[in-house]
Structure to design on (1002 residues):
């Protein structure tokens, strides 16, 4: 595995919402999808994924349904709910604002002060 | 928040599914990862190992998932419930005692509450029932507290009182209904057109009456109750226009009432127009209520009772201005009173019910104190275990919640048993005659009762947890762990708490017992009252004659004559008579009479007197005593002589220094022509007319039946046989003698007397039952606490005995403790009994609220029982063997 970044606190929920928003996924699928869309740059502790999924389900941001996996096993598939979609949009906006602000701050040169 | 709760309950509904799903999901993840690793070339055993390591601890993940779903409090509760269940099962004797105590105490409370709920709390089955009122006339200074309302009142008030949106008048009665030969007596009501709209329950089919139908001759229309429609018309949807034979005359059905329609305690199944003649509606008839006609009204939204009262008063004042009797009316204290309908209907029984509930609550309190003491003792026994657990990190919240869960589990189980007890109690009340109370037939086991049981149990459980939790938290834990005994030290505070509980318990038991004693004594006093006649061997029954068969007075008198003659021929019958009302019938009205030549002294008002019309040998049959002159006889009735008999109260009031014989009096409030005067030919002993406990000497007049206009008829016979056994024969005679005559309410006079005491007997019985239970609980409580004290100090006693203390000293020490508690409890109880006795003065009859003899007896009983409860443990203490006690532990 290449260089990976530590996950910032609070960002796991956002990433799960994003992953699920693309396509209904089971828990393991969420893990793979986050790794894939982050370019394998993010390390997700496997054990912490499920409490996060359950928390989001409890908040009705995602909903779960049993389905059949590619290799014909019963698996729990998560989909984004309406509330989840709204939350994702808000979090994305918030993140973008934060990220650009921090980028701006970090790119400041002495001449600009 | 709502979402979380929804999600929480979704999971709760299928908790096992949740667990299974979670395991499956996590397993799937690990398996998939392993498969991916193998696909990437990792050897299978190594892949399995890595998958498991990288996933981390399955257990803690699962725990975190549960937490994420908000399941932890629920799991914790389940754990604590299981734990509580286990500990309760481990001490079956304690658990059984506690449950039995709770079942009895809660059962008693729920039984009484069922009555309170049905009679005092449950709203009347009409829309906005709290806006319904009744208006009645009262003449308190004439001794007539309640006289209903008159037809005139109704016509004068209708639409004239702005605070009322509707106003109606009604009277109750019964009629013989059905085709000749297949008739039955049906309770009915006569109502004015707005009666149903006032109540807010209009006919579901057809219409109410019209003003035109209020005239006489009657218009022969009828409205059916739902039950009558179902039973007699098979719920025919086209019943309107069909006929009901009432007293042999066809009446047309114009309406059917909604199902469940019931006006207060009325059992009416047919409703007729409240018909009257124009001359019944004039001002002269304004005060002829006679307590048989009643007005109800509905307050307009926003209008208050006080406004309605003010408007009624104002109208009365205006009307009285032109009334020639205005002076007399104001002397009599005349007023028309507006009162809430329901409160008025149940007013007579309300204080008794509330006191009963108070007694039941006192019982519950005694039981709860017992339980608290038992629990405290148990907690002392577990103090060491608790100390260890707290030392190992159990939080204070955990300690408190564990206690609360245990006590609540206990009280909830007790509450369910109590519901069963309440169910049985309601049955018991039925046999005591509770359905004779106003609204008494509605006493039932309903959802509110179940809810009160559950909520009450939970509250009780939490209340019981408080002292235990306090004890657990304040206990000196370090000391407890170090202490060598298993139980540990219990501390002075908890000992004081336990002793305080015992004192309170003894005091409450004493108050309860004293209350029961006062009620019982009142009942005894009431039963000892002589009714003024000889009630033994007397049978009575009410006869209803259909007006079509007996249209006029001579026909009715002829019936009386034939009936009385027929009955007197029966074996065993020694005397038989007829009267239009018997004493203690519960409906004894008073009317005015004027004594010729009597000048009312200033300040004295017109008096209402009980007035009867009688035929045959009524006085002898009822066993009246003759003081002067002669009884009236059947001959007086037949001849229509204007003679009468008065009772001693009447005679003493009007002629305190002269003989009543030969004096003359007039019916009504005016002296009229001499030819209308009645001559007094006899004086009989006074009779308790309205009830045995009625102390007012109001006076009574007995007229010949022929000269009265009141058509109601009771037959009264004296027999040498057991009176109830004559009932069937009497029924047969009535049926054979009269065409379509029916007889109801057949009871011996002794039964009537005993029935009239139901509001005294049932409370006295229940209070006695409550106090017996309270006594038992107190004994158990005192015994439990003292024997615990002995057990706890076993070692100390052993040491002292080894050092030479005599058993008597040991025994004396514990007896002294018991006696100290008893003395304190008794003193507190006497004070409580004094307060309670004064507060329940209105329920007592010829018994002072602070009855020294009862109180002394009560204190003796409590003392004796407590003493026995102390003696046993004190004796046990004295019998402790020093060697065994010291060898223990």
């Amino acid at each position: 595995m290449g260089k990976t970044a530590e996950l910032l606190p609070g960002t796991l929920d956002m990433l799960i919402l994003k992953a699920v928003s693309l396509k209904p996924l089971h828990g393991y699928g969420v893990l793979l999808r986050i790794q894939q869309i982050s370019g394998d740059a993010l390390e997700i502790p496997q054990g912490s994924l499920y409490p996060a999924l359950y928390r989001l389900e409890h908040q009705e941001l995602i909903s779960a349904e049993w389905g059949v996996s590619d290799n014909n096993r019963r698996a729990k598939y998560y989909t984004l709910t309406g509330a989840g979609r709204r939350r994702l949009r808000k979090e994305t906006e918030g993140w973008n604002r934060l990220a650009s602000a921090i980028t701006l701050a970090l790119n400041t040169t002495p001449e600009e002060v | 928040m709502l979402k979380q709760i929804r999600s929480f309950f979704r999971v709760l509904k299928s908790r096992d599914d949740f667990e299974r799903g979670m395991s499956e999901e996590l397993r799937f993840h690990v398996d998939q990862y392993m498969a991916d690793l193998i696909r990437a070339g990792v050897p299978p055993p190594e892949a399995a190992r890595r998958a498991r390591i990288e996933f981390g601890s399955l257990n803690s993940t699962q725990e975190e998932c549960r937490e994420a779903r908000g399941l932890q409090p629920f799991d914790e509760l389940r754990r604590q419930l299981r734990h509580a269940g286990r500990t309760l099962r481990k001490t079956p004797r304690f658990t059984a005692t506690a449950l039995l105590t709770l079942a009895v105490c809660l059962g008693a409370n729920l039984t009484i509450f069922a009555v309170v709920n049905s009679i005092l709390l449950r709203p009347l089955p009409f829309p906005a029932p709290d806006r319904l009122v009744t208006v009645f006339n009262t003449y308190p200074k004439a001794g007539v507290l309640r006289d209903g309302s008159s037809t005139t009142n109704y016509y004068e008030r209708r639409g004239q009182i702005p605070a009322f949106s509707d106003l109606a008048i009604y009277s109750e009665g019964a009629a013989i209904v059905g085709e000749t030969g297949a008739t039955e007596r049906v309770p009915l009501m006569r109502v004015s057109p707005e009666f149903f709209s006032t109540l807010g329950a209009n006919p579901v089919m057809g219409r109410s009456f019209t003003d035109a139908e209020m005239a006489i001759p009657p218009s022969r229309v009828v409205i059916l109750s739902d039950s009558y429609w179902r039973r007699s018309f098979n719920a025919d949807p086209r019943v309107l226009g069909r006929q009901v034979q009432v007293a042999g005359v066809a009446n047309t059905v114009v309406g059917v009432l909604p199902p469940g329609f019931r006006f207060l305690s009325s059992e009416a199944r047919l409703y007729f127009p409240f018909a009257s003649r124009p001359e019944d509606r004039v001002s002269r008839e304004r005060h002829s209520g006679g307590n048989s006609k009643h007005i109800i009204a509905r307050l307009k939204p926003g209008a208050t009772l006080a406004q309605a009262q003010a408007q009624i008063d104002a109208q009365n004042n205006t009307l009285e201005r032109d009334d020639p009797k205005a002076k007399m009316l104001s002397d009599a204290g005349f007023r028309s009173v507006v009162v809430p309908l329901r409160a008025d209907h149940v007013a007579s029984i309300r204080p008794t019910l509330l006191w009963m509930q108070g007694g039941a609550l006192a019982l519950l309190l005694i039981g709860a104190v017992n339980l608290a003491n038992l629990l405290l003792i148990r907690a002392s026994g577990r103090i060491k275990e608790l100390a260890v657990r707290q030392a190992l990190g159990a939080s204070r919240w955990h300690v408190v919640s564990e206690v609360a869960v245990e006590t609540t589990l206990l009280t909830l189980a007790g509450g369910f048993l109590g519901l069963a007890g309440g169910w049985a109690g309601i049955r018991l009340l039925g046999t005591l005659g509770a359905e004779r109370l106003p609204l008494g037939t509605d006493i039932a086991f309903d959802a509110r009762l179940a809810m009160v049981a559950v909520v009450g149990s939970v509250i009780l459980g939490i209340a019981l947890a408080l002292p235990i939790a306090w004890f657990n938290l304040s206990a000196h834990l370090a000391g407890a762990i170090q202490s060598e005994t298993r139980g540990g030290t219990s501390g002075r505070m908890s000992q004081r708490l336990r002793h305080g509980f015992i004192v309170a318990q003894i005091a409450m038991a004493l108050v309860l017992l004293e209350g029961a004693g006062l009620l019982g004594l009142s009942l005894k006093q009431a039963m000892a009252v002589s009714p003024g006649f000889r009630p033994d061997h007397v049978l009575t029954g009410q006869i209803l004659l259909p007006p079509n068969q007996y249209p006029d007075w001579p026909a009715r008198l002829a019936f009386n004559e034939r009936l009385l003659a027929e009955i007197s021929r029966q074996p065993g019958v020694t005397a038989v008579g007829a009267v239009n009302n018997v004493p203690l019938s519960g409906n004894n009205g008073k009317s005015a009479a004027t004594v010729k030549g009597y000048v009312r002294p200033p300040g004295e008002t017109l008096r209402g007197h009980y007035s009867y019309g009688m035929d045959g040998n009524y006085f002898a049959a009822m066993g009246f005593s003759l003081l002067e002159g002669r009884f009236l006889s059947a001959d007086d009735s037949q001849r229509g002589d204007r003679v009468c008999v008065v009772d001693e109260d009447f005679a003493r009031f009007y002629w305190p220094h002269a003989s009543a014989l030969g004096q003359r009096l007039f019916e009504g409030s005016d002296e009229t022509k001499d030819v209308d005067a009645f001559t007094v030919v006899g004086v009989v002993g006074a009779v308790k007319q309205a009830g045995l406990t009625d102390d007012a000497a109001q006076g009574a007049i007995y007229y010949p039946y022929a000269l009265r206009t009141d058509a109601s008829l009771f037959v009264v016979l004296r027999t040498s046989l057991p009176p109830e056994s004559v009932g069937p024969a009497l029924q047969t005679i009535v049926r054979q003698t009269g065409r379509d005559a029916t007889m109801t309410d057949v009871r011996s006079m002794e039964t009537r007397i005993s029935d009239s005491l139901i509001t005294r007997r049932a409370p006295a019985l229940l209070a006695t039952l409550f106090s017996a239970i309270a006594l038992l609980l107190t004994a158990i409580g005192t015994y439990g606490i003292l024997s615990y004290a002995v057990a706890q100090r076993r070692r100390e006693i052993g040491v002292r005995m080894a050092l030479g203390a005599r058993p008597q000293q040991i025994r004396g020490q514990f007896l002294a403790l018991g006696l100290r508690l008893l003395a304190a409890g008794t003193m507190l109880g006497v004070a409580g009994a004094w307060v309670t006795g004064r507060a329940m003065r209105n329920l007592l009859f010829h018994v002072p609220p602070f009855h020294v003899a009862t109180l002394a007896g009560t204190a003796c009983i409590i003392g004796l029982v407590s003493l026995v409860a102390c003696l046993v443990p004190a004796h046990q203490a004295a019998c402790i063997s020093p060697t065994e006690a010291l060898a223990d532990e």
Summary: The longest strand of chain A covers residues 62-68.
